[in-house]
């Protein structure tokens, strides 16, 4: 049995790790990924919180990843989800 998640369902368990805008960006990313793959993805909020981090801007990313200098370098190293108000990256 499967349930189709709404963005509100998706936000359960993520609100303490991501902004509202970040949650929407992640939700839209996973919906596009499902469409591209042609199958559904199991929702696992714990895995998402462990695998992705939201940053306010490039400067904040650089404080964690000291070897990164530009946003292009971030894109070369990992998955990047940019949205109005921040950047979510897949941790690397």
Shape summary: globular
Order of helices and strands: HHHEHHEE
How is the biggest beta sheet arranged?
Answer: 3 strands, antiparallel
In whole angstroms, the N-to-C terminal distance is 34 Å
Task: Specify the helix fraction band.
Answer: 40-55%
Q: Provide mean pLDDT, rounded.
A: 95
Strand content: 5-15%
Cα radius of gyration in angstroms: 14 Å
- If helices are DSSP runs of H or I spanning 4 or more residues, what is the number of helices? 5
Describe the structure.
It is a single chain. With 92 residues, the protein is an alpha+beta fold. It has one domain. 48% of the residues lie in helices and 14% in strands. It is built from five helices and three strands. The protein has a three-stranded antiparallel sheet with strand order 1-3-2, with helices on both faces. The longest helix has 18 residues, at 20-37. It is globular. The termini are far apart. The mean pLDDT is 95.
Structural descriptors:
globular, alpha+beta, 92 residues, 5 helices, 3 strands
Entry summary:
The chain has helices spanning 7-11, 20-37, 45-51, 58-64, 71-77, and strands at residues 52-55, 80-83, 86-90. By secondary structure, the chain is α+β, with helices and mostly antiparallel strands. Strands 1-3-2 form a 3-stranded antiparallel sheet, sandwiched between helices.
């Amino acid at each position: 049995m499967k349930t189709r998640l709404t963005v509100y369902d998706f936000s359960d368990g993520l609100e303490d790790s991501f902004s509202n805008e970040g949650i929407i960006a992640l939700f839209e990313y996973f919906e596009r990924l499902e469409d591209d793959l042609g199958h559904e993805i199991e929702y696992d909020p714990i895995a998402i919180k462990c695998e992705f981090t939201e940053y306010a801007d490039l400067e904040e990313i650089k404080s964690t990843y000291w070897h990164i200098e530009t946003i292009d370098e971030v894109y070369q190293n990992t998955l990047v989800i940019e949205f109005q108000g921040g950047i979510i990256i897949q941790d690397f």
